[in-house]
Amino acid sequence: MTTTLTTPLYYVNDRPHLGSTYTTLACDAIARHRRLRGESVLFITGCDEHGLKIQRTAEAAGLTPQAHCDRVSAQYRDLWRRWQIGHDRFIRTTDPRHAAIVAQFFERVRASGDVVEGRQQGWYCVACEEFKDDPHEADDPECPIHRRPLEWRDELNLFFRLSRYQSAIEELVARPGFIAPASRRREVENFVASGLRDFSISRVDLPWGIAVPGYPGHTFYVWFDALLGYISALLEPEDPADLDRAVVRGWPASLHVIGKDILRFHAVFWPAMLLSAGLPLPERVFGHGFLTREGQKMGKSLGNVLDPERLLDLCGRDAVRWYLLRDIPFGDDGDFQQQRFVDLVNNDLANTIGNLLNRTSSMARKWFEASVPPAGDAAELRHPLAQLAQEADALYDAAMQSLDFRAAAEAALQLAISANGFLNDQAPWKAMKREGMAGPVGADLYAVLEATRRVAVLLAPLLPDLSARMLQQLGQEPLSSGPGEDGNGSRWQDARGWGRLAVGAPLPPPEPVMQRLELDGPL
Ligand code: MSP
After folding, report:
1. At residue 276, does pLDDT exceed 70?
2. Can you tell me which atom of ligand 1 is nearest the CA of 298?
3. Do β-strands 89-92 and 199-200 pair in parallel, antiparallel, or remain unpaired?
């Protein structure tokens, strides 16, 4: 069984921003966790490259749409590489195989009798690539999200008969767990209860799109095309462009992670399209919240957009991942506050976790020949830190299962706090001054080193880099969880046992595993 996990396919109208980076980092943590559990994972991301918005952006830049898409999708690819995102697939909707998949899917939908011709009239938001419901009252209606004028459309299009799926979709959205977090379900239920209307799936006079077979002059509506990217992405490099082949490679998706603004497309339109084509439905759609910055919406006009490239250069991967995953409840809106970011990273990662490792390993090296001290009975499960590590594991597992990264990070951090507390109580630096205390001191240091190792293990999916540096300082192999590394299930299980550090194994000279963040000005 393959676990198929997706980010949205990002529009290439602009450079990647923190919002897309946030979703992608979160999915990366999920993918790494599942791989470590031994699941076979297909983590899909990519770019959504058709439609009017992209066509206009390319025109404004004086480029052909294809040249523009090549440029921006390369920026995404490069950014994900720099962030070390471990995706298995990167799909571009301009991939010729994707066009063939869309055409095959359309044939199935048509064969089900779900394609009809009709007249589309309404107000369109190009930035959303969506018709807006009933803004007729205003003279110059604006998109409530983008605050830009809507454009009036009146054309003959092909429609998908969404209305036929009213009761099936009602049942689906009511299914516990399909829409997560549960708080987002109500909004979709209300939308469905208001009555599903057929929606247009083709455009005339829009050359930058996939041609609709049998309808000259029509291209597919960008969302009809884009959602299918999740299926085209399943094809192996050597596969022909065949819908059935793609489906057996890993459909249905276990989880679509998206922002709350595109929930309707994923929880209503997309399942109905799949039902029409006779394909299984995704198991879960998770709609996360929006990030603001110091309380303000991020936008080019405000000049307050956080550039993921710059964040990476100035702060590093671990710091940003920690802040986003540990501080913002996944599912809720979150506010990026620079001071809080710096404080959390310095307190949690540099002081609590980094110092714990550094001071413990320094003491062990000094007093026990640069190696793991004799454990005495500290290697036994009844040791208080062993018990706390077990409790942390249980909390962590439950949290990761429900995508509560905050609680998972908290469980790891809490274990480090407890280990620090234990060390302060035992005060080995005092005990060591007394005669005959090497045994108990060695055991205490062993227990703390072991607890620190367990913190590193729990951090592996959340902060793979810091986890690897910590394990290395403890003389251990890192827990790899990148693409293709699904075979490590037993290592992860084993690493979560107690007493795994081998007594007498060398401890490398300590180096700080986490630099403190010192920022001169606003990011
Ligand atoms: N192309 C469509 C998705 C098609 S999926 C088949 C799209 N692309 S997007 O690039 O505009 O948006 C991608 C994601 O970024 C969305 O999930 C959106 O919610 C998210 N975000 C955009 N701004 C955001 C924030 N400020 N904060 C968090 N996420 C945000 O929609």
Report:
1. yes
2. 26
3. unpaired
Counting beta carbons within 10 angstroms of the beta carbon of residue 440, is it exposed (0 to 12), middle (13 to 18) or buried (19 or more)? middle
Helix axes 438-459, 355-367, angle to 10 degrees: 150
Helix axis angle, 405-426 relative to 355-367, nearest 10°? 40
What pLDDT is attached to residue 55? 96
Mean pLDDT of 44-64: 97
Continuous segment of H or E residues that includes residue 301: none
Strand order of the sheet with strand 40-48?
89-92, 40-48, 2-11, 255-259, 285-288, 179-180
CA–CA gap between residue 156 and residue 218 (Å, rounded) = 10
Helix (H) or strand (E) run with residue 430 in it? helix 428-431
Domain 345-495 in the same topology as domain 2-288: no
403-452 per-position pLDDT tens digit: 999 999 999 999 999 999 999 999 999 999 999 999 999 999 999 999 99
Q: Where are the alpha helices (DSSP H) in 436-519?
A: 438-459, 464-473, 489-495
| Averaged pLDDT score across all residues of the chain | 95
CATH assignment of 345-495, among 1.10.472.10, 2.40.320.10, 1.10.730.10, 1.10.357.10: 1.10.730.10
CA distances, 24 to each of 17, 30, 400 (Å): 11, 10, 16
Q: Yes or no: is domain 2-288 CATH 2.60.40.10?
A: no
Q: What percent of the chain has pLDDT over 90?
A: 89
CA distance 266 to 272: 10
Q: What is the pTM of this model?
A: 0.96
CA 46 to chain centre: 13
Nearest of 323, 322, 457, 484 to residue 397 by alpha carbon: 457
Cα(467) to centroid of ligand 1, in Å? 29
Atom of ligand 1 nearest to the CA of 261: 19
Q: Where are the domains of the chain?
A: 2-288, 345-495
Nearest CA to ligand 1 atom 5: 8
Mean pLDDT for the stretch of residues 380-398: 98
Question: Which residues contact ligand 1 via a Cβ below 6 A?
Answer: 8-11, 19-20, 22-23, 48, 226-227, 229, 258-259, 261-262, 290-291, 298
Residue 301: pLDDT over 80: no
CA distance 121 to 152: 7
For strand 179-180 and strand 285-288, is the pairing parallel, antiparallel, or unpaired? parallel
